[in-house]
Write a structure and sequence with these properties.
This protein has 226 residues and is an all-alpha fold. Helices cover 76% and strands 0% of the residues. The chain is globular, with a radius of gyration of 17 Å.
């Protein structure tokens, strides 16, 4: 999904028409809302049934497999099915993580706080990215792509070699990268660089997902829960 970030164009709104841009933005937010709700339901069910974490290998295979499928089906009705399959799977993987934190002494407050901060951050960044005085993110594509791939690799190293300090640092980096990606993708939609609302939804959903899990890790550490 992120491999083509640096290649996306960002033409001005008049080139494709404001009606088209507004439609893509509306459709993206509608689908994003639906997938967030669906993912939350799946995560809640995963917690309620105490389902085990799928493991790093199955998680990566499921995520990248469904991501590739969504990309291939992005221009058909089946693309919507694959989007919900992807976000539902991500909700399932999130369930055990949230369940772990809920089991801690201050867990419910920690999870609620993280949800609130994630929501405020997304709304704030989306609003700012669409404002007249916002920083132009058109040239951020290559930086974000390299940063995400690097942080992803460091995150895997932290898991396999059990390096808590590195894992915490990766979470902090991901907070910054996902914040930048939210702004980049929002402006990309507004400028007409992204005209497929399915792909736009996936990018924003993954950004929110990673932002939430990274903040949860950081807040858990700061609160002395880890």
């Amino acid at each position: 999904m992120y491999s083509d970030i640096s290649k996306r164009s960002t033409p001005s709104i008049p080139e494709i028409g404001s009606f088209t841009v507004n439609k893509v933005l509306r459709d993206t937010y509608r689908l994003l809302s639906a997938t967030l709700f669906f993912s939350a339901v799946v995560a809640s069910a995963s917690i309620a049934m105490s389902l085990p974490a799928p493991g790093i290998l199955l998680t990566l295979a499921g995520y990248f497999g469904l991501l590739f499928l969504t990309y291939k089906l992005r221009n058909s009705g089946w693309g919507l099915v694959s989007v919900f399959a992807l976000t539902g799977f991500m909700g399932y993987t999130l369930g055990p993580v949230i369940g772990h934190y809920l089991g801690l002494a201050n867990g419910p407050q920690l999870v609620a706080t993280t949800m609130g901060v994630t929501a405020v951050t997304f709304v704030g960044l989306s609003w700012y990215a669409r404002s007249a005085g916002a920083v132009n993110t058109a040239n951020w594509g290559s930086f974000l792509m390299i940063g995400i791939l690097t942080a992803f690799g460091m995150g895997l190293a932290a898991i396999f070699f059990q390096l808590p300090a590195l894992s915490l640092a990766v979470s902090a980096v991901f907070v910054l990268l996902m914040s930048g990606l939210i702004m980049f993708e929002t402006q990309n939609i507004v400028r007409g660089g992204e005209t497929n609302y399915i792909l736009a939804t996936v990018t924003l959903f993954v950004s929110i997902y990673n932002l939430f899990t990274s903040l949860l890790h950081i807040f858990g550490f700061l609160g002395g829960e880890e």
